[in-house]
Amino acid sequence: MSDEFTRAVEAVLFAAAEPLAPDDIAAHAGEGDVAAALETLARHYDGRGVRLVERGGRWHFQTAPDLAHLLRRTREEPRRLSRAATETLAIIAYHEPVSRAEIEAIRGVQAGKGTLDVLMEAGWVRPAGRREGPGRPLLYATTADFLSHFGLGSRRDLPGLEDLRAAGLLDPMEEALGTLPLESDGEDA
Hints:
Layout: H1 4-15, H2 22-29, H3 34-45, E1 50-55, E2 58-63, H4 68-71, H5 83-95, E3 98-99, H6 100-107, H7 113-121, E4 125-130, E5 138-142, H8 144-149, H9 161-166, H10 173-178
Antiparallel strand pairs: 1-2, 3-5, 4-5
């Protein structure tokens, strides 16, 4: 890892207060192949106490997951979301950008303003502009912090239906329907 440009990229990432996109890295590090430097650094830090990771197209150093407990001075309380907040977050993640009316239509109940406020306060949801149409409703989308918190590189890494079923988080609809008696097709047996 003696390449001067790679060292410059490493210094930029180390000093950055927040994750950086490759264009931002290039703006600070100068001329060079940012992608190659990032690949070299990621290999160099693989298996060490810190790792170079990419989340949502932005790069940063983070403590290796197996050592994170060493750096916690106080016990972190896990953020507990209400069922409404969890459902709302899932709808936004899978359907973004989405309006409050669309969230309500999918959930089947009215979305309280407090639910979206909690998600925005957590830094996981942000306003994403307005839809062109009657009333120009505000749209919501997930943030880079959402991706980082849940360990996702991008929204494409969200689990699909089969993944959720395999994890036991969804009841297969086919099984539920299979237990219901079928209606007669009009013929007597």
